[in-house]
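Kindly go through the entry underneath: sequence plus fold tokens. Please state briefly how this chain folds according to its tokens.
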Amino acid sequence: DSVASRYDLMNDLMSGGLHRLWKAFTIQRSGVREGSRVLDVAGGTGDLSLAFAKKVGKSGQVWLTDINNAMLAHGRDRLLNKGYILPVAQCDAEKLPFPDNHFDIVTVAFGLRNMTHKDKALAEMSRVLRAGGRLLVLEFSKVWEPLSPFYDLYSFKVLPWLGSKIVGDADSYRYLAESIRMHPDQETLKGMMEQAGLAKVEYFNLTAGVVALHRGYKI
């Protein structure tokens, strides 16, 4: 709730604008086409939902979902301001209110890290995918080892300071750094996706592993 209104500004400041390139890469690797049905889990302020909406056209459908009402409302309003009326749902990723085998693409960007039972959330995302559908997980990951000391310094010192100055909330960005450190590394997350029933799982390290995009297919 405390960061929703300045979430996008903080993303630009924290990543130097790189988050836009990471998300554009996710769209590129998704295989989205006109008519696709897309579910954006933990979609927040709607960056991916907006990009997908531009691709699927009038014959497709994009659902924006988030567990947090403030983030979801901000994302909905942002999409409306840009002329896109998308269905939205406040829901828990571990209990998705959608039928089996429904979506062509499910994405979660910088949200899986915050889910308590990641295995349940991944299983739910797999459940709602149709056969041949793709799950894409864009998330902070394990950085290239030589950069680790500098990355830790940035994460645990600079990010909370930025949070305090920009949104008046250092704690949320201290939590961000802690949650990144606790998140599964690239190979572990790949295994978790395979355990959730996905096949041909691969990942792409972005910006020296600061972020990784995982992609898996439902068979």
In short: The first strand starts at residue 37 and ends at 41.
